Amino acid sequence: xxxxxxxxxxxxxxxxxxxxxxxxxxxxxxATYKSETMTLVRPSPLRGCNGIIFGLDGALYVCQGAVxxxxxxxxxxxxxxxxxxxxxxxGIFYPDDITVDNKGNFYAVGHxxxxxxxxxxxxMKKVIARNLNGPDGICYDKQRGRLxxxxxxxxxxxxxxxxxxxxxxxxxxxxLSIPEAFDIKNGKLIIPDMGTGKIVKVDPDSxxxxxxxxxxxxxxxxxxxxxxxxxxxxxxxxRVLRISPDGQHVExxxxxxxxxxxxxxxxxGRLxxxxxxDSTIWEVKLxxxxxxxxxxxxxxxxxxxxxxxxxxxxxxxVVMVRMIDERGNLYKTRANxxxxxGYPLPITMTQGLGDNLITxxxxxxxxxxxxxxxxDWAPIAKLTTPAGMTLDxxxxxxxxxxxSLGQITEVDLETPYPCKTRLVTSELSGPVALVAxxxxxxxxxxxxxxxxxxxxxxxxxxxxxAGYVGKPKNLAWDYNCNLLVLDVARKELVKVxxxxxxxxxxASNLPVLHTTYYHHPIKYDGxxxxxxxxxxxxxxxxxxxGSITKIFRK
Length: 554
Description:
With 554 residues, this protein is mainly beta. It contains no helices and 51 strands. The strands form 13 sheets. Strands 1-46-45-44-43 form a 5-stranded antiparallel β-sheet, with no helix packed on it. It has a 4-stranded antiparallel β-sheet with strand order 2-51-50-49, with no helix packed on it.
C-alpha cells in the first residue's frame, strides 16, 4: 500500500530540550492486560497551534484552536518551557489569532464561537465582540490605538472593533474573498486574501483596496518585518515568502511542510512560524538563507477517532487522517482536506467498506467514504451534526448519531447518494458514540452520562448503564465481546461484562478530558479515540495531550 507522505512525523527532533506538562502514567488494573503500556505517538506540547505573537514580556503566546487554549512559551529561557496562559475551561472557543496592545493586554478571536476576547496579563478574559461570522485575523495598531479583525470562510468581512467592547463593530469592507491574518503598516491594513492569492492594502477609514501583489497560493498570514518588507506563508505549499513593500519583488526564503498557519517576529527580529497541521513551531533563520529549525516536536492535534485495519492504525485528529504503520511510523494520508480534493474535515471516523474509511464533518453536516491511500472520496449522506458512527458490514448499513437532534439514523450504503436513511430512535441526550451487537446499538449519551441500548428493528430504547460513568465519550468491544466505555470524567476505561453486567476498571489515569466543540450556535461533545486490534490490544487517543497509547492483552 503506497501512502502519500507530506511529512513523516517521526523524523529529526529539535536540538533544544523543553519543559511542559508531563504525561501521566496510565494505571492498568485489569489482570488480563499487561501493566506496561506503549506510547505509539508521543504527546504534542503545542497541539493545534494557530496564531502567535510575542508579548511585552518577550514570551511567545500561542493560540491552540484545537484544544481551546492559549499557551505561553519562554523561548529565551535556558530550558524553553510551555505554560498555560488561558485554560480550555475559561470559556474561549477555538482561539485562532492573537495580538497585543501597548499595555500588555491581548486580543484573541474565537473563530468558531464568533467572539473576540480581551485578555489581561493575568489571563483573565472578557468578550468585547459577539456574533461575528468566523473571525480569523486580528491586529492592534499600537501607534493609533485601533483594533481590527477579519473574518474568513463564512463572513469574509473586515471590521474595526472597540478595544473596550462598548461600541458595535464597524464594517470596513466585505469585498475580499477570504481575508486571513494580517498586519498594519502606516495605519493601513496589509491583508492576505487566501481565496484569490493576492496581498492587498486596505484603508481602514475609506475601505479602499489597493493591490500589492498577486499569484500566491493560499497565503494564510503575514507580518511586516523589521526591514519593512512583507513576510507571508502559504498554507498549501509551506512556502515562506519575502515581498517588497511595493509588491514588485517576491522571494522564497524557505519551504516548510504544508499546513503552516501563522508567523511572528520576536523583539530581536527572529522569525517564527506556527504549523497547525503538525502542532509545532519553526524558527526560520533569515541570516542563514532561510535555514529552519523545528522548536518543538511534531505531533497530533486531537485524536478523536481510531480505526484499526490489519497492522495499520488510522487516526483522525480533526485536521486529517493519519496512519501508524506496522513499524510504528506516523504518516499523513491522502484523506486530507488540505491537498485540494474538496474532502471535508474528518471530525469522526469509523470502518468503511473494503479499504475505505467513513468520516463525518459536523460543521458541513456531511458523511463521506474515503480511501486513505488514493484520497478518492464520495459523499454518503447529509445529516445534522453527525457524531459517532458504526458500520454493519454484512448488511451494509451505517448507523450515525446525530448529536444536536438526539437521534440515531440508519444509512443504507446500497443506495446512491444521497443514500436512503431511516430514523432508528430519538430523544437521546448528546449521543456521541455507538457500537452494534446482536441487532442492538449501544449508545454513549455524553450529556446524560449514560449508555442506552437501542433495538435496531423497532427503535425501542432502554437505559443500559447509568450512575457510574460521568462523561462517556467512546465505546468498543474487547476481545471477549465485553463492552468498553471510555469515561473522560473519571479518566477511566470501564469494562461491562456482557454475561453478568459486572463493572470493572481496565485502566485509570488516562490522558483524556472533556472537550466541547463550538460551531455557533451548536455545542458538540467531541469523541475520544478508542479501538481494539485483532490481537485484543486496546488503543486509546489522549485528547488531553495528543498521545496514542496501546494497552497490551496478555
